[in-house]
Amino acid sequence: MKLLSVKEFRDSATKALKSKEPLIIMRRGEVAGIFFPTPLESIPFEFKKDIFVALTESIKKNLRSKGITEEEILEDFEKHRKARRRR
Fold first, then answer.
1. How far apart are CA 85 and CA 82, in angstroms?
2. What confidence tens digit (pLDDT) does each residue in 22-65 have?
3. Which one of 55, 70, 79, 86 has the minimum C-beta count within 10 Å?
4. Considering only CA atoms, which of 69, 15, 8, 66 is closest in space to residue 33?
5. Which one, of 51, 46, 47, 73, lies nearest residue 62 by Cα?
6. 4, 24 Cβ separation under 8 angstroms
7. Residue 38 carries which DSSP code?
8. Coil vs helix vs strand at 26
9. For residues 25 and 34, what is the distance between their CA atoms, to the nearest angstrom?
């Protein structure tokens, strides 16, 4: 697995995306994105679990810092879904 800053990724995206190893793109010390060059099925379960936990914690932290609740997200999603149906 390779860690790249957003700047490093931007400057060498073509080369990085040809890599055979997973890439984790970091912005200011936090995960900005993850790239898996292989089908998800071939990634070990424990690795997928660790990624899920890390991303979940990051999302929770961001939501808490902005004062957004799960209920607000669900309400917003429902509004969007209903508005989309009307189109």
1. 5
2. 888 999 888 888 888 866 667 788 888 988 898 888 888 889 99
3. 86
4. 8
5. 73
6. yes
7. S
8. strand
9. 6
Whole-number Å distance between alpha carbons of 61 and 53: 12
Q: What are the phi and psi torsion angles at 15 (to 5°)?
A: -65, -45
pTM for the structure as a whole = 0.48
Rounded to whole angstroms, the Cα distance separating 36 from 47 reads 12
Provide the residue count of the chain. 87
Q: Are 35 and 51 in contact (CB under 8 A)?
A: no
Identify the H or E element spanning 32: strand 30-35
DSSP code at position 36: -
